[in-house]
């Protein structure tokens, strides 16, 4: 079909493109005019601000830490070190594992779950897993590698070393090998730090045991250095799992601390248990409350145990809770723990200009007596500090 | 085939004519402040103005925690010869953080009005109303554009006494620690609807 576009009608006065432009212009003019008038009204405005709002560096909250450091003076003849086995290197307190195999195996490992004692949501730098071990047999060689997990979800975050290329080996039964492995890639905030598990795979050239002296995680935030201590350790070196809770860390877990020697039937200033906490409260923080949980009972049915406490910073007595004449509490029998919560109002910022220093260096002595001159069981010792940082 | 050209041209011409006619008609319809008559009376447009002679909105707060509130007073005064018909609030963050971007756990705003000037105490500022109160803006996320305000007087020559309450909800978690935002507030008023004059 032939098109007629080029055919100009004699009666056409305006070209077709001109007509199109005219139509568009008319429509646009109408739209513009209507729109302009529709929105054209008088107005006024007033401004306020600028208002700057900044939040606290650490929100108020209770941070709890167990007593990993324990010294036992129940015998009345000085303090005996009975802290958590993995608290420090070179303290002669070690754990001997079960027997390993000569090759790494996926079902042979150790695990450490760390406490959740830090304020959440705070960036963490330089998180480091500190681990000290030795072979249990002279002349043999023990090797390890590690994996880092979120404890609550058992999610693997990362690993260091492999079964083919171990992270570290020890060929001595007397000199401990210490690793300070950075796990900063996996632990970037206190949210992870408070939910941390480290698994250690091992092997031993003679299918024997390892000796463990240290298992902590240390590092820093912008506000304070910290050390995290294990509250649950698991030993599956033999392929069969054995779980050990730190005696004072978890209440009602059928694990408790029984003092080293019998108590006297009366209080003595030389007979006590001493607990330290290392809460790492940041300098400049405001402490609004401090409480101490102390759960205990006699080790002997029908007997009565009593206690009173003293709070120290070094040799300086900060406060007393009860006395030899008026104990903080007493508890009869060995089936139910006395679950004492002691308010330590003397250690708040409102009452103590050096509250942060005093709380960070706090040692609590629990003086005890037992009606039959026997031992006691302490189930739970925890310091709870409510603080914030502006 | 030739017949088809003429309807098309007529259609385009019709659109052009109708468009122009609509434009002219529209001008006549919306022309409130002009007159096309030849009468000798004078028509003058009115004026209106919105100001904030009293404002504490420039007073920030630091450091705050979850559950904290900040009360700040601001008076909106309406002047001129024409009353306002409505008012809105636009807020923006000139320095932004999770405090203003988290609409649930971040900063929230509410505005109340007092029938007389608020009685201020502090700092930190708090306010009590000796008259009656009404809600101008129910609690909502702080940042917003052209947020409608209600229960304002808006009448020329009057003043609305407002109390702005900014809250960091108790639900704010640790992700909102150590954050900082700077907020600008703009109250906009629009004239009343046109009437017969």
Query: What is the H-and-E element order of chain A?
Result: HEEEEEEEEEEEHEEEEEEEEEEEHEE
* Percentage of residues in DSSP E strands of chain A: over 45%
Please count the helical segments of chain B. 2
| Number of strand segments of chain A | 24
Cα separation of the termini of chain B = 57 Å
Question: What's the overall average pLDDT of chain B, rounded?
Answer: 86
Low-confidence stretches of chain B: 1-6, 15-35
Extended strand count of chain B? 11
Determine the mean pLDDT of chain A: 92
Point out poorly predicted stretches of chain A: 1-13, 25-39
Structure description:
The complex is a heterodimer of chains A (about 400) and B (about 200). With about 400 residues, chain A is mainly β. Chain A is about 10% helix and about 45% strand. Chain A has two domains: about 60-65 and about 255-390, Jelly Rolls (Sandwich), CATH 2.60.120; about 85-245, Jelly Rolls, CATH 2.60.120. In chain A, strands 5, 6, 7, 8, 9, 10, 11, 12, 13, 14 and 15 form an eleven-stranded antiparallel β-sheet that branches. Chain B is elongated and about 70 Å long. The chains are: A mainly beta (about 400), B alpha+beta (about 200). At the A-B interface, α1, β1 and β2 of A face α1, β1, β2, β3 and β4 of B.
Task: Give the arrangement of secondary structure elements.
The complex is a heterodimer of chains A (390) and B (197).
Chain A: H1 16-39, E1 43-55, E2 58-66, E3 69-72, E4 80-81, E5 95-96, E6 109-114, E7 124-135, E8 142-150, E9 155-160, E10 168-170, E11 177-182, H2 190-193, E12 196-204, E13 210-221, E14 225-235, E15 242-245, E16 257-258, E17 272-276, E18 286-298, E19 304-313, E20 316-321, E21 329-332, E22 338-343, H3 355-360, E23 362-370, E24 376-389
Antiparallel strand pairs in A: 2-24, 3-4, 3-17, 5-13, 6-12, 6-14, 7-11, 7-13, 8-9, 8-10, 8-12, 13-14, 14-15, 16-24, 17-23, 18-22, 18-24, 19-20, 19-21, 19-23
Chain B: H1 5-30, E1 48-55, E2 61-64, E3 69-80, E4 84-95, H2 98-101, E5 108-114, E6 119-121, E7 126-128, E8 133-141, E9 144-148, E10 159-167, E11 180-191
Antiparallel strand pairs in B: 1-3, 3-10, 4-9, 4-11, 5-8, 5-10, 6-7
């Amino acid at each position: 079909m032939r098109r007629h576009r080029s055919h100009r009608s004699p009666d056409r006065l305006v070209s077709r493109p001109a007509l199109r432009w005219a139509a568009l212009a008319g429509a646009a003019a109408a739209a513009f005019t209507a729109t302009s008038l529709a929105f054209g009204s008088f107005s006024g405005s007033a401004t306020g601000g600028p208002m700057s709002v900044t939040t606290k560096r650490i929100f108020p909250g209770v941070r709890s830490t167990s007593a990993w450091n324990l010294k036992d003076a129940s015998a009345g003849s000085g303090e005996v070190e009975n802290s958590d086995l993995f608290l420090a290197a070179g303290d002669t307190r070690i754990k001997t594992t079960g027997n390993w195999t000569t090759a790494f195996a996926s079902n042979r490992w150790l695990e450490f779950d760390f406490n959740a004692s830090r304020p959440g949501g705070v960036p963490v730098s330089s998180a480091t897993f500190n681990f000290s071990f030795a072979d249990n047999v002279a002349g043999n060689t023990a090797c390890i590698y590690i994996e880092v997990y979120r404890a609550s979800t058992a999610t693997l975050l990362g690993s260091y070393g492999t079964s083919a290329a171990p992270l570290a080996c020890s060929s001595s039964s007397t000199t401990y090998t210490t690793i300070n492995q950075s796990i900063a890639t996996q632990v970037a905030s206190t949210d992870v730090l408070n939910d941390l598990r480290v698994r250690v795979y091992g092997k031993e050239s003679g299918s024997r045991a390892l000796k463990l002296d240290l298992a902590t995680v240390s590092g820093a935030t912008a506000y304070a250095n910290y050390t995290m201590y294990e509250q649950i350790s698991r030993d599956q070196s033999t392929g069969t799992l054995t779980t050990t809770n730190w005696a004072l860390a978890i209440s009602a877990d059928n694990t408790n601390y029984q003092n080293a020697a019998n108590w006297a039937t009366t209080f003595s200033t030389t007979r006590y248990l001493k607990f330290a906490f290392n809460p790492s409260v940041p300098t400049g923080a405001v402490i609004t409350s401090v409480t101490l949980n102390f759960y205990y009972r006699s080790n002997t049915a029908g007997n009565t145990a009593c206690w009173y406490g003293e709070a120290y910073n070094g040799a300086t007595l900060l406060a007393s809770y009860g006395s030899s004449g008026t104990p903080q509490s007493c508890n009869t029998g060995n089936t139910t723990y006395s679950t004492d919560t002691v308010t330590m109002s003397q250690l708040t910022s409102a009452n103590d200009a050096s509250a942060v220093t005093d709380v960070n260096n706090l040692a609590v002595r629990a003086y005890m007596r037992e009606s039959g001159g026997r031992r006691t069981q302490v189930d739970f010792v925890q310091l709870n500090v409510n603080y914030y940082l502006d | 085939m030739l017949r088809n050209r003429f309807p098309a041209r007529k259609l385009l011409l019709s659109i052009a004519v109708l468009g122009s006619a609509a434009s002219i008609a529209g001008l006549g319809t919306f022309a409130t402040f002009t007159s096309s008559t030849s009468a000798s009376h004078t028509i003058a447009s009115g004026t209106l103005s919105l100001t904030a002679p009293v404002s504490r909105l420039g007073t920030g707060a630091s450091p705050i925690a979850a559950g904290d509130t900040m009360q700040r007073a601001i008076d909106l005064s309406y002047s001129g010869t024409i009353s306002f018909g409505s008012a809105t609030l636009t807020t923006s963050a000139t320095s932004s953080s999770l405090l203003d971007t988290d609409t649930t756990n971040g900063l929230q705003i509410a505005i109340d009005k007092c029938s007389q000037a608020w009685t201020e105490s502090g700092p930190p500022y708090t306010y009590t109303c000796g008259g009656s109160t009404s809600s101008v803006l129910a609690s909502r996320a702080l940042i917003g554009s052209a947020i409608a305000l209600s229960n304002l007087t808006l009448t020329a020559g009057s003043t609305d006494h407002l109390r702005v309450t900014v809250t960091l909800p108790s639900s704010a978690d640790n992700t909102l620690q150590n954050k900082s935002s700077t907020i600008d507030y703009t109250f906009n008023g629009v004239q009343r609807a046109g009437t017969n004059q």
